[in-house]
Amino acid sequence: MVVRPARLNAVIAWLFMVGSACFVLGSVPAYANAVGGTVDAVTYFVGSIFFTSASFCQLVQAQSPAMTGVEAMRQNIAGPVRFWGWLPHDRGWLAAASQFPGTLFFNVSTLVAIAHNATVQQKEQHVWRPDFFGSTLFLVASGFAIAALGLGFAVRLRSVGWWIAWVNMAGSVLFMWSALASFVLPSTGDLIDVRASVLGTLLGAVCFLAGAALMLPAWRQIPPTMGEAISAD
């Protein structure tokens, strides 16, 4: 299978943007009140599917030499993609490989959350745990993405790739904050902090939306050596 690097990058960006937009929408109290709990939960699940689709495409991108480190003149020249790869020394690939299973955990947590009659134990095992594991993997992926920049903790405000990596890290931190606040208390069946859970998801999704949107101009502006860093979450 051959695709144009620029087109694959655009697909990834738009899939992430749609998925993030679903999480933003689902986190808005007015929307949840208007459509009801079930539709709101389905909105999250649909968003998680877009996240998974984008993450899989990003993994394919990271492990396909013809799709990474592409200079401006070759962005629209179709090249082969690899659906399987093992690049443990490539930080960009490690970011994508960590992120993809994280999105699968979100698929599970958002799907089970649709069942409103779940017991406290079921919520803890099948909603909170996958959410926590997914958030953890997103943090790991963001760490690898920052490492892939090769800048350490240096600030590069004029670098679009730098902004993408750190905005996504902020989103991952906020998702983890939301996951911790969503722990179900066994004694009452309530969340530790509902407001923090909703706010963390909302702000985290906004960060992921912004990071995905930046992928479009970044692909055209960043030098070839930064290709993998842009591809990383």
* Domain count: 1
The residue fraction in helices comes out at 55-70%
- What structural category do the secondary elements indicate? mainly alpha
- What gyration radius follows from the Cα positions, in whole Å? 18 Å
Coarse morphology: elongated
Brief description of this entry?
With 233 residues, the chain is mostly helical.
Explain the overall architecture:
With 233 residues, the protein is mainly α. The chain has one domain. Helix content is 70%, strand content 2%. It contains 8 helices and 2 strands; from the N terminus they run E-H-H-H-E-H-H-H-H-H. It has helices spanning 5-27, 29-35, 37-62, 91-112, 120-149, 160-181, 194-221, 227-231; strands at 2-3, 79-80. It has a two-stranded antiparallel sheet. Helix 2 packs across helix 3. The longest helix is centred in the middle third of the chain and has 30 residues, at 120-149. It is elongated and about 60 Å long. The model is unreliable at 222-233 (pLDDT under 50).
